[in-house]
Amino acid sequence: MKINLTLPSARTVFIGVAAIVAAGLLVAGGWYWHATTQQRAMAVYAEAMTRAQPAQNPEATSETRAAAIRGLEAALTQYPSGRDAAQVAYLLGNLRFQSQQYSQARGAFELAVAQGASRTLRTLSRGGVAYTWEAERNYPKAVEAFKVALEGLGPKDFLYEELLLGLGRTQELSGQKAEATATYRRAVSELPNSRRLDEIKARLAELGT
């Protein structure tokens, strides 16, 4: 049997090569655009955070904090998902908290978590959410937020002691006496070398245990 092999025409070959080249250019262009965008975002974030540093001083004026907040929000508006967006959002949350703008601070902390914050920054941000609820005296919400912040953490992890005692404190304040007692007993068991052990035992004594 005779098989006829038909080679593609020069035009077909040219079209195929052109398509491959075009696809390569699109990929390269997309990578370049992403890289340059990230570089611009990092530069904008760095400038906003540098300008916000004086506002973190407890003695900073309300005007200084307000200007820093505007700068951080502008940076996040311009680049909402840059590589360091979580860090910017966390700093924004802190400044909002210091300005007693608890709802807005909570939104910034939640944004930091949503932006894929590192483990440490995620713990700090989740803790920040809990503290905003406590500051608003919404103790049941604070209890739940402290529980979320403690998820996946152990006695040797960063901020564990502070978050655990925050949980016990807000359980007390929300009238959950049995739960607070259990939390403080857990703290005594898991943190036997804590510098706050006397304080924890005092809370247990106050609760009648």
CATH superfamily: Tetratricopeptide repeat domain
- End-to-end separation in angstroms reads 98 Å
Using the 3D structure, state the CATH architecture: Alpha Horseshoe
Beta percentage is under 5%
Which value, in Å, is the CA radius of gyration? 27 Å
Briefly, what CATH class?
A: Mainly Alpha
Q: Helix proportion of residues, in percent?
A: over 70%
**Number of beta-strand segments:** 0
Helix/strand order, N-terminal first: HHHHHHHHH
What's the story with the biggest beta sheet? none
CATH topology, by name, is Serine Threonine Protein Phosphatase 5, Tetratricopeptide repeat
Shape: elongated
Low-confidence residue ranges: none
How many structural domains can be distinguished in the coordinates? 1
Number of helices: 9
Structural class: mainly alpha
Can you offer a commentary on this structure?
This protein is mainly α and 209 residues long. The chain has nine helices and no strands. Helices cover 74% and strands 0% of the residues. The model has no long low-confidence stretch (mean pLDDT 88). It has a single domain, classed as Alpha Horseshoe (Serine Threonine Protein Phosphatase 5, Tetratricopeptide repeat).
Chain-wise SSE layout:
Elements: H1 10-52, H2 62-78, H3 85-98, H4 102-114, H5 119-135, H6 139-150, H7 160-173, H8 177-190, H9 197-206
Helix pairs in contact: 1-2, 2-3, 3-4, 3-5, 4-5, 5-6, 6-7, 7-8, 8-9
